What does this fold into?
Amino acid sequence: MKLGAQVVIQVYPDKEAMSRAAAELFVEQAGQALRLRGRFCVALSGGNTPRRMYELLAQPPFRDRVAWAQVQVFWGDERCVPADDPRSNAHLARQVWLDQVPISPQQIHPVSGNLPPEAAARAYEALLKSFFAGQPPSFDLIFLGLGEDGHTASLFPDHEVLNEQVRWAAEVYLAETDLPRVTLTFPLINQAAVVALLVTGAAKARVLKEVLQGPREPRRLPAQLVHPQSGALFWLVDQEAASQLQKNPDIKFISDDA
Ligand code: 6PG
It folds into this structure.
C-alpha cells in the first residue's frame, strides 16, 4: 500500500451490503492489528448509518471472528448528554452491539457525557494520551459518517475546530443547536491506519459528489480534510448515495454476489 495515498471508493448495491462490507473491514482490521500489535483500537462514529454494521458485529458469523478481549473501543465524537440518553452515540453502540459481545467495560471508552463540554474534551484527550502512552496516537480503524452539510464526526463547516492542530479532542458548540459535542480533531483522525467513511441514502448523494468530485473547499466540506497521513481511506457507500458520482476507475462498483 502506497503511504498516505490509498483512497478506496466502493459502491454497494444497498445499505445491507455496505454494512456487511463495513463489518468485514472491522473483522479484517481487528485480525491484522492483533497479529501486529496484540490489540485493536477502533473509534466509532455516531449517527444512524453504522447501526446495521453494529447489529451484524453482534451476531454470527462476524461476532465469532473477533478476539473481543483485545478490542479497545473509542468514539470519534459524542454529544454531551448522559450515557443513557438516546442521543448518545455510545448508547446506540452499546444497545445494539457492545452489550451483546464478550467485551469488558474496561475496554469501552466513551466520552464523559456528564461533564461540561470542555472538561469532557480535556478528560478524553487525557485518556487518549494515557492509552497511547508515548506512542503515536494511531487508531487501527476509525469509522466516520458524512453529514448532508459535509461535516464528519463533529467537525462542522466553518467551525474553529477545523483549525485545531494540537489538541486531540475538542469541545464543539453549534449556533443552531444547544447540544454541545466533543470530537476527535483532524490531527488525531489523520494518524489512523485506516479511516472508513460509511455513507448511504439518496439524501447524501449531493454532498458525496461535492466532497469526492467537487472543488476542494475544506472549510465548507470538512470531510475533505479526512486523509490518513500514512494509512488507507475507505469510502463505503451504497448506490443511492453514489448516484451523482461520475464513474471513473477510482470507483469500484461491488455487485451483490461479490
Ligand atoms: C454525530 C455523528 C455525525 C454523523 C453524521 C452522519 O454524532 O452526529 O458523528 O458525524 O456521523 O452526521 O449521520 P447519519 O449516519 O445519521 O446520517
